Structure formats: C-alpha cells, structure tokens
Inverse folding.
C-alpha cells in the first residue's frame, strides 16, 4: 500500500519509497527547469508557450515566468527564452513567436531586433511605413522634430526664413544663418544659401531674416558684417586711415585735399585732420601732414599749396610757418616775404619799437635811458643812463655832463649844477665815481665848479675837502704863517721875534713891505695879511708865537723883535712886562740878585737891616748892631736898644734875646 503523495516540487514515477525522490527516472526526482510539479505529481507538468522557468523544484504553474519583453518563448517547457523579437516588430512580455502580428512596428517609429516597444524616430528623421526597423533621413530643406510627436511625414515642416536645413535637420532653428548673413527665403538647405549682410548694414545675430541696421559711424560694411563695429578685414572693419566712414558706410570715403587722417575710426569729413598749420597737403588720402610751407609764405591749417599767403610787412615766415611771426619787439619791417627774424630791421638808434610786428619807427627813447639799435622799450633796464652821464630824449648813447655839471644817480635825462663844495668834470661810466668830487684841500668850490677850483688865499689854508666859500678857508693857525695860495697846511712857524695871531701870510709880519722882504713874487701880495707883527717892548716871541708873551717878572725886553727876555740885573727888580730895569732899583731893607721879580722879593731877615738901595745879595743886609736889636723883616735901621737887664750881641732880633745875648748875670750890668 502507498504511504502518501509525492511532495510538491517533486514527481514520483513508481516504487518511490520517499516523498522527494532524487534518483532520476527510476522512482522520481526534483521537478526540472521548464516545468512545475504540484503534490502527488507522477511526471513534471511543462510550462506553456509564452513562458519559461530556469529553476528546479517549482510546485505550481504560477511559478512559470512570463517570457521576457523583447524575446519570445515558443512551444512548452522552456527553461530560457528562445530568442530576440525580430526587427520590424516589438515584443511585449509573454510572446511565443518572433513576429507577432499584433505587434508590427508603427509609423514614425522603428523597431530593431529585440524591441520591447516601438522606438520613436529621432528628430532629424521620420518613418512613413510600418514594420520598419530603421528611420528615414529628413530631407534637406525640411526639419523633422519628434520632440512632441513622432514624425511620419515632413512635407509640412519646411525650413523657415533665417535658417537653413541640411539633411537630418532636427528642428526649425537648428541651423540659423550665422551672424553676418540673413535669409528671407524658406526651404534653404546649406549655409551658403544664407545671404551675406547687405553693404552698409550689419547682421550681428544668427537667424536674421533682414539686416539689423546701418553699420556704425567710423566703420565700413562692404558685405557680411557681423557687428555694427566689425573687424572682418576687407569685407567690414574699422574705417582705415586716410578715410572717414559716416553711418551706413559701404566703402570708406576719401579725406579731401588739404586734410589727412592718420587714425582709424573717423566718422565724418570734419574728423579728417586739417593739414597742420605750416604744412600743406596736396593729395587725397594722406595719412600724415605734408611738406613744410615755403619760406616767405605762411600756411594756416587745411592748405593744399606751398605758397598760400605771402608773408606781410612787419613779419617774417620761416619754412613751415602756419602764421606770420611778427618781427620781435625791438625790430620792424616794411617789406613782404621775409623768411627770418634776422631779415627784420633793428629799431633805429635812439628809438624803440615796443610791439612785435611794427612796420616803422617813430617813438623816441625816453630821457634817462639810451637806446642802441634793436630796443623794444623806451626805458631798457640794461641801458639806463649811467651815473655821471645824461641821456635826453632820443639818446642813442649816453652823453658826458659839461664841466661844472654832474649827475649822481642813474637814469638822468639832464645834468645838475655841480653842488657847492664839489667840483665836477666830464666822466665816463668806468670812472663815474669821479663825476662829483670833494673840493680838494686848499681850495673852495662854489656851486657849478668844474676845473676852476678857487684857491684859499695867502694867509689861509684848508686841511679839509668840500669847502664852497672863501670864508670856509681857515685863517692861518696861530703861531704859524701861510705863504702862498691853496695851502693845505700852514707853511711854517712864525719867525722868532714875531708873533702870528691869525691869518698871517709871512714869517715876519710887519716887516718891510717890499716883495723881496716878504718873500713874495707878487707885488699885490707885498702887504701881509692877518693879525700879527713884530714882538713889542716888554715881550718876547719865540718861534711859532701866536701872541707876544709878556716878559716874566725878573726879566725884561728892552727892544722889539726879541725872541727871549733878558734876566733883570742884580740890584734891580723887573716887574712883568718890563722893558727896562733902571727905574726899578732895589729898595733899602732888601737885596735883589739877578732876575729879581719884584721889590720886596728878597727882604733882609730879622736880626739884619739895610739902609741902602741897589742891594744885590743877602750879604748887603747888615747884622743888627750890638746892644741893639732888629726885630722885623726889611729893616732899614735897628729897631731899638736891647732891654734893660739884657745884653744883645750883633744880629739880635729881639730886645730880650736868648740867641744873640741874654740876661745880665749877677755881677754884671748893661751899659
């Protein structure tokens, strides 16, 4: 008897002793691939067509796997799919043959071998057939855009204006006409079908149907310009030198005669550079200014000939002049066509030419200045009239002041009278400090003095300069004489025996008035001048005496003209100013040695007396007699007898002397 059902996932043929035999086809085995074995299976049950099973031990039919999409599983018991779905078809899962009729590839799609679903033809292609495994190329002149829907037909998708569509174009805007071109026609197929941008216009965007606008000023756009300011060489570029380019220029326009243009990008004719002043531009299309204007002519800007305007009077025009250059101040010109300043005429001597460009000279140089040729101002600082000179109006050179006149400052137009105390001689600038000099010592110079100095007269002198009148000459110094004119120091000391108080003109004033004695050569000077004379009586005049000197007491001068006084003789006295001594004997009671000055100069002393005149020495004074006394000076006799009871020897000066006598001693008496 049986024990039970074979296990699910196994099959039992016969004589199986276990529920999960594994001995092959002897008693049974595990359920093979491509089949399933429910419980109690005597044999595997094969998976149906359109399915497969690639594992063992499956138990139910649902364990069979639907055939993989893109593949097919024909017949039953498949352990793997039989193969891929055929091209031109697509196979959803569970297909049992490679060309399922229900799954023919649709229009607008393609189905390569193994397709799961139809594949939409990519943009740039289309498919108007079914069952195709490839897509057709979109023809030139059209676009095939499958972004939204598959493309079956292309006829309604013509290439738009502004674009071109080669074969396989995917969308209407895939191939825009490039910058520099435009396209106003449909169905264009290649880029060369795009039209180069029109002359004078620019196309700075892709896909244009017409040009954008005029080419910018300063640029030219011959053809195909891709910018308002293109840089495309000969076709379109910045306006080159020699030309200008207004807005919308096709070809650059030539700059005119008289102008040039060295730079790019000029926009209008007035931006062409006028030919530089001083040059001329004879040709069109010049990049630099031309040759220099001819000397003697001037060329303002924008000139096209070398001899444009003749240089006028008062000016000169060197090579390359743009304007006449006025002859410099200090010069003039009354002819045309000059070429250099050196051809202008220097302003005439004594005149000045204050402004540039003068054609004549009429203005005189100012007083106080002199104007050599070529002066521009009436008062040229470098030609101010030098000190010591004068320059009236119109002076071509400074002029000397005449004798007795001077100037002591620069810039004088006339000379001043030489001032008092000075003399003025003509000078030159190199010695102008000599123009007014101090009147020299020994002279005086009134105002207007030139070489004619006035001599200080004889009897005077001047040790100072700058005197201007005769009374400023110094009277000859006391004690001296001034012999001759224009002395600067006294001549010498007044002669001994004479005195010269002031203004004396000879050494011995008061001497003989003949010219020989006066040591003068001019008879009109024979009489002495000043205060002076021979030394008078009672006086002495050593050499150089200003006044007579009274003989001192004790001396005398007994005659005139003495140089010294004699000593008074003994026995006499001589008072001051004594002219003799005989009338002045020495009085009694005195004595007078040589040179005694007054009567009582030498008194006989007490104890003596002198009763006589003409005493000459102390010895002439007698000792007082014995028995008497001489009490006072200058006694002419004894004073009296010696006192009673006293005795006096000779020379006693007192009645009761103790030096020349004394008291009588006992036993004695005075007689």
């Amino acid at each position: 008897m049986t024990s039970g059902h074979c296990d699910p996932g196994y099959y039992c043929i016969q004589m199986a002793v276990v529920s999960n035999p594994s001995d092959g086809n002897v008693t049974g085995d595990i359920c093979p691939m491509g089949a399933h074995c429910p419980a109690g299976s005597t044999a595997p049950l094969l998976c149906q067509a359109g399915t497969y099973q690639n594992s063992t031990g499956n138990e139910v039919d649902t364990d069979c796997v639907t055939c993989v999409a893109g593949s097919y599983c024909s017949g039953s018991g498949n352990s793997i799919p039989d193969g891929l779905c055929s091209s031109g078809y697509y196979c959803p899962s569970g297909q049992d043959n490679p060309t399922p009729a229900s799954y023919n590839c649709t229009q607008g799609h393609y189905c390569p071998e193994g397709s799961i679903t139809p594949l939409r033809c990519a943009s740039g292609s289309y498919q108007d057939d079914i069952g195709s495994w490839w897509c057709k190329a979109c023809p030139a002149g059209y676009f095939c855009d499958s972004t939204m829907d598959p493309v079956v037909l292309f006829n309604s998708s013509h290439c738009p204006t502004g674009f071109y569509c080669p074969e396989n174009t995917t969308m209407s805007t895939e191939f825009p006409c490039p910058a520099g071109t435009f396209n106003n026609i449909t169905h264009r197929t290649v880029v060369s079908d795009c039209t180069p941008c029109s002359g004078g216009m620019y196309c700075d965007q892709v896909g244009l149907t017409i040009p954008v606008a005029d080419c910018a000023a300063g640029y030219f756009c011959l053809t195909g310009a891709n910018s308002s300011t293109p840089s495309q060489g000969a076709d379109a570029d910045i306006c080159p030198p020699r030309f200008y380019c207004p807005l919308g220029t096709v070809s650059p326009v030539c700059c005119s005669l008289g102008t040039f243009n060295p730079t790019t990008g000029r926009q209008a004719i007035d931006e062409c550079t006028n030919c530089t002043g001083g040059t001329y531009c004879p040709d069109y299309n010049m990049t630099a200014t031309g040759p220099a204007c001819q000397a003697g002519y001037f060329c303002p800007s924008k000139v096209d000939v070398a001899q444009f305007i003749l240089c006028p009077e008062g000016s000169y025009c060197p090579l390359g002049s743009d304007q006449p250059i006025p002859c410099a101040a200090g010069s003039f010109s009354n002819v045309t066509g000059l070429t250099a300043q050196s051809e202008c005429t220097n302003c005439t001597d004594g005149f000045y030419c204050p402004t540039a460009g003068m054609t004549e000279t009429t203005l005189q140089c100012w007083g106080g200045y002199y104007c050599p040729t070529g002066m521009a101002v009436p008062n040229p600082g470098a030609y101010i009239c030098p000190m010591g000179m004068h320059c009236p109006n119109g002076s071509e050179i400074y002029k000397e002041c005449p004798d007795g006149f001077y100037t002591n400052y620069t810039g004088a137009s006339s000379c001043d009278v030489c001032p008092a105390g000075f003399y003025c001689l003509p000078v030159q600038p190199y010695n102008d400090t000599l123009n007014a000099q101090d009147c020299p010592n020994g002279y005086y110079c009134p105002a207007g003095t030139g070489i004619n100095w006035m001599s200080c007269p004889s009897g005077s002198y001047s040790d100072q300069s700058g005197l201007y009148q005769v009374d400023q000459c110094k009277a000859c110094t006391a004690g001296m004489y001034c012999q001759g004119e224009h002395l600067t120091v006294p001549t010498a000391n007044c002669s001994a025996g004479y005195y010269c108080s002031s203004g004396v003109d000879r050494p011995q004033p008061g001497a003989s008035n003949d010219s020989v004695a006066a040591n003068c050569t001019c008879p009109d000077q024979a009489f002495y001048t000043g205060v002076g004379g021979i030394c008078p009586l009672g006086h002495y005049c050593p050499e150089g005496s200003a006044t007579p000197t009274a003989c001192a007491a004790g001396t005398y001068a007994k005659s005139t003209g003495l140089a010294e006084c004699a000593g008074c003789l003994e026995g006499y006295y001589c008072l001051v100013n004594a002219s003799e001594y005989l009338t002045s004997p020495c009085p009694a009671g005195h004595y007078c040695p040589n040179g005694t000055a007054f009567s009582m100069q030498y008194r006989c002393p007490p104890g003596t007396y002198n009763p006589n005149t003409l005493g000459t020495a102390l010895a002439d004074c007698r000792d007082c007699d014995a028995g008497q006394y001489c009490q006072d000076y200058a006694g002419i006799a004894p004073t009296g007898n010696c006192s009673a009871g006293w005795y006096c020897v000779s020379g006693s000066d007192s009645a009761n002397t103790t030096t020349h006598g004394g008291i009588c001693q006992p036993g004695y008496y005075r007689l």
